[in-house]
Amino acid sequence: MKIVMKIALLSAFAALTACTVGRSAFDRGQQYERSGKFDEAVLKYAEAVSNNPEQSEYRLAFLKASENAARVHLKAGDDLFAEKRLDEAFNEYTKAMVLDPAQGRAKQQLDTLRKHRSSLQLYNEGVAFEKENKTKEAVRSFQKALNFNPNNREAAESVERLLKTKKVRAEGFELNLKSTKPITLKFKDAKIKDVFNIISQLSGINFVFDEGVKDAAVTVYLENATFQQSLDIICGMHKLSKKVLNESTVIVYPKTPDKTKQYEDLYVQTFFLNKLDAKKAVNLIRTMLQVKKIYVNEEMNTLVLRDTADVIEVARRILDANDVPDAEVVLEVEVIELAKKNAESFGLALSKYAIGASLYGPNGAFSDTLTAATTSTTSSTTTTTTTAATNTQLLNLFRWGDYRNYITVPNATFNFGKTLGNAETLSNPKIRVKNREKAKFNVGTRVPITTTSSNGVGNYNVNVQYVDVGVKINAEPTIQLNNDVNIKLGLEVSSILSKEKVGTDGNTTVATIGTRNMDTVLSLKDGETSVIGGLIQDTKGNNTSKIFLLGDIPIIGNLLSNKDNSQDKTELILAITPRIVRGITVSDPEVASFWSGVEDDPSVAKQYASFAQEPEFNAPAAKSVSAPPAQPQPKAQPSASLPQAVPTQNVQQPAQAAAQPVVVTPVAPQSAVQVTDPQAVADPAAAKAPDLAANLPPAQVRRVSLSISAPTVVKVGEQFSADIMISEANNLFSAPFKIIYDPAFIEAVLLTEGDMFKKDGKPSNFTGKIDKTVGALEIRFFREAENGGISGAGKLFSATFKARAPGLASIGFTGIKLTGQGYKPVESTPYNAVIEVKQP
């Protein structure tokens, strides 16, 4: 028994100690909060909650303080961001997100800040490339910096400066050419198939003609052009289209609806939408594009398109730019109602300002003035109840024999009272609402109003209706790009002025309701408070009750009168504060704007894109020497019922040939052309059969860019994220590589897959392994052949690191083995990162 008592005492003592500690921490937290130290308040409130988890008061105070502290850090981060103190702003935004995870705007600002840091890092890389006279790499870095931050003025100026001196080659598809030497075409009234024959000799590409291709005459003068430019201009002039079969074979066919249906492959793509409604999306696609087939799956909120690959790619980019999360805002509303009452009553008040007289004789009263009779009838029996006047109201005026005279006088009361009243009603609702949606809330009561109805046979039905009385607020916010909030605000204040019973039965209640309405549109900044006042109702009443004539006598009249004076004043004050939780999401420039082809031929590439910028040729210029004309005289191929293949004709050339323009000049417009190379070496034995495929530089290969987006400065003990980004990918199937880092300064903690390889909704494989001993990350992405490759730009994965020791830590790529369609190697350009680790 003693042991049980000891345990009970110890438990009671522990509970009492916990309550005491919790209350002390809560009081301390309130002191910190009142002084504006929200971080310290959060810690104390957390301590109070941990000691007394059942106290809802502590928990509510903790949540409120966390929200206020997050708001303070968010404001500090915005100020630091505006001053371009990115590292300090990053810390403030991180604290805001940790304190209030629901604060979506802090996450948005963190993403924006990371983009700014990546933009700054890429700009610095561009400057380094420019110093090394690597103009092409410098322009690419500056343009990537602008993709991350379009407002990077230094990067924009650098791109403009470099493009004035050197134009960068536009993106265009080129086949596996045997020669990249510039081509000069000079034809007049030559057959189109002869022109393709010459181009085939120079490039090594086989052309197969559809039966509908007419051997029309061609007149063209084109100097120092690439293979792609030559092909584009000839096909465009004669309304021809092409389809690539493999690296060395191209089908040429007329650009007509029937032939397009015959040769163009159709692709089916399912778009999984996150925020954009599928019905709105289908209207958007049908407005912008003429798609062949499209289906809306409302249950899955998806779109299914069947069209050409170019149309589907344009549709994908349109949906990517519009499928963004809605902005949200929290409206904090404070409604304060102040009521003042001042009532006073002074003077002589009579219960009734009237006198009644009655005369009684031997046989009773001459009148029944002195009695009040109430008669009620039930069946055939009548019952009469009389109520006699009280003796205090009767006054015997005279008595004569059996005759008496009585008068009734009212009761008199002398008032000298005064009533003062002050009332304050406060309500502070908070509501979270999406952009351009309506929010409604009511602060008040529901007053019952009764009505009585009869069915005509003696049955009565009593109905009760409730009327909302109080403060009604309707708000519709519109969030702007600059985080201003336009609020369409409607306010209604209602109150019951009086109630009265009406009808013969007295069961119907009629209420007189007074209302005050206001409609306005406010434009507020994030966190700005607007106070709306002036909704004042001031009622004054002065009533005087007095005896006729006597009340008008000076001095005496005041003593014989009663004055009731009253003054009621109510004022309503409304304060509204918008706090943006998630701002408007703006798509990246490369997603929001892109070339979309011509009217009837949508494509993500600009028409004649190969002519948009000057071509680049890798081979150096050689001294110009003359060469004898070539001997072969190709003849025009006659049309046939089946497509005709133009074989590659090998023409020999000396090994010392330089990359100067190959001039092709027709000497016989109908049947023969002459091929001359003015830059060939004067060797008669070799010049008889020049070989254009000998010792030529390889065709330029499109490179995929890999970059690392990470903070430039971290402190020891902090964790940070490094985003591995990829851009300019084209039909990429696999991406195995390694990331190496300095294990002495930083340590890898976690790997998280990005959205690059699964952004089209198709499955992909991702494996990642951390080797902390040597400081390496082994990464592998892979897609099955039936799922197709991935193109564009995006985040491959995120790596979370922890800073261990001060110093300069490098993060870089190694062992990159990217593969495209057919598992062919894809060239890449990696961009590494350096992070400075400082002492805290």
Overview of this protein structure:
The chain has 840 residues and is α+β, with helices and mostly antiparallel strands. It folds into 7 domains: 2-102, Serine Threonine Protein Phosphatase 5, Tetratricopeptide repeat (Alpha Horseshoe), CATH 1.25.40; 114-165, Tetratricopeptide repeat domain (Serine Threonine Protein Phosphatase 5, Tetratricopeptide repeat), CATH 1.25.40; 183-256 and 608-687, 3-Layer(bab) Sandwich (Phage tail protein beta-alpha-beta fold); 262-328, Ribosomal Protein S8, Chain: A, domain 1; 330-337 and 417-582, no CATH class; 355-409, no CATH class; 704-838, Immunoglobulin-like (Sandwich), CATH 2.60.40.680. The chain is 25% helix and 42% strand. It contains 15 helices and 41 strands. Strands 30-41-37-32-35-34 form a 6-stranded mixed sheet, with no helix packed on it. Strands 9, 16, 17, 22 and 23 form a 5-stranded antiparallel sheet that branches. Helix 1 runs antiparallel to helix 2, helix 2 (38-51) packs antiparallel against helix 3 and helix 6 runs antiparallel to helix 7 (153-165). The radius of gyration is 46 Å and the shape is elongated. The two termini are 57 Å apart.
